[in-house]
């Protein structure tokens, strides 16, 4: 077989892989534009919630986040806030201890959210709660947050993801990160649940049946705790609901260095799941576990920024070296641009985003560098610093 034929075969295989990824995202982007007609009715029961705030060196944001949560219009006797304070100052801990919450002080040798959550559950022992809520230390929620979660839980939802969205747009990186979050919401949450598939988890703004969470959180060990929780839920055929109208404001990263560290952790979590995806996909399809098969397909695909960058580079290179082969690449390049545009909410489609787009080549380069620096990352916690709320 000639070298030219080998290059053609390689080109077709690569096009099929990247083209499938783009088509997958496009389909869910389109359906994310549709609004579900079903609404949860008022709950028949006020369920008891425990709200967990894992806080590792989060002195700048944790107090204001907790104070904001205390503004819930949900009855005070039906929820308890627990802050897991890991390496925060005594001044911060003292201020927190004066608030109506339980403060757990920990000092892990190798800190992680999974360890913090397990410590809290061990502390609670057999306490009688109906559901557990997981929030990051920088998250701000609306006063009706628990009321809305309670409605879904009362209707039978055992796993719930709220709508995380950016609360700061003060740098180009923050604007792009907020846009990326909303794209993920469109592809992997809103579009999915409209078609009857499970939502992806976001890492915070999540709620779970307490008994299920208590039994399963002990199985979580890596830095990608949300992906591990997804695996457990979907293998057990537990549907993950997404509440698009229930907003959790999340601080977006503000610098290229923070982007690099955060995406390094995300990449490590995704590639750490890749081996499982390749191994489990045939059985998931055979047993008709569509939600789990769909999740495995997501993990096989490249992260979106790498997908966009590689398609653009291949399109340009082939346009110079082999124009006829480049035509199909131009098609999927234009399709991924449309896919991203469809997924961005109108309130983010503004001049700030147009200006921030200039940073995409730099961020692609940082993501590309991360591909070679993933060894051991999935087993250690990489902290993202936050500014004051």
Fold blueprint:
Layout: H1 3-31, E1 49-56, H2 62-69, E2 79-86, H3 90-97, E3 102-106, H4 113-124, E4 131-134, E5 140-141, H5 145-154, E6 159-166, H6 172-194, E7 206-209, H7 210-216, H8 225-235, E8 240-250, H9 256-286, H10 290-300, H11 304-321, H12 323-343, H13 351-356, H14 360-370
Parallel strand pairs: 1-2, 1-4, 2-3, 6-8
Antiparallel strand pairs: 4-7, 5-8, 6-7
Helices, by number, come to 14
The coarse silhouette is globular
What proportion of the residues form beta strands (DSSP E)? 5-15%
Distance between the termini: 62 Å
Mean pLDDT: 88
Q: Order of helices and strands, N to C?
A: HEHEHEHEEHEHEHHEHHHHHH
Radius of gyration: 22 Å
In this structure, how is the largest beta sheet organized? 8 strands, mixed
Low-confidence stretches: none
Structural class: alpha/beta
**Helix share of residues?**
40-55%
Q: What's the β-strand tally?
A: 8
Biggest sheet strand line-up: 3-2-1-4-7-6-8-5
If you had to describe this structure to a student in words, what would you say it looks like?
By secondary structure, the chain is α/β, with parallel strands linked by helices. It has 14 helices and 8 strands. The chain has an 8-stranded mixed beta sheet with strand order 3-2-1-4-7-6-8-5, with helices on both faces. Strand 2, helix 3 (90-97) and strand 3 form a beta-alpha-beta unit. Helix 11 (304-321) packs antiparallel against helix 12 (323-343).
What features would you highlight for this structure?
single chain, 389 residues, eight-stranded mixed β-sheet, 14 helices, globular
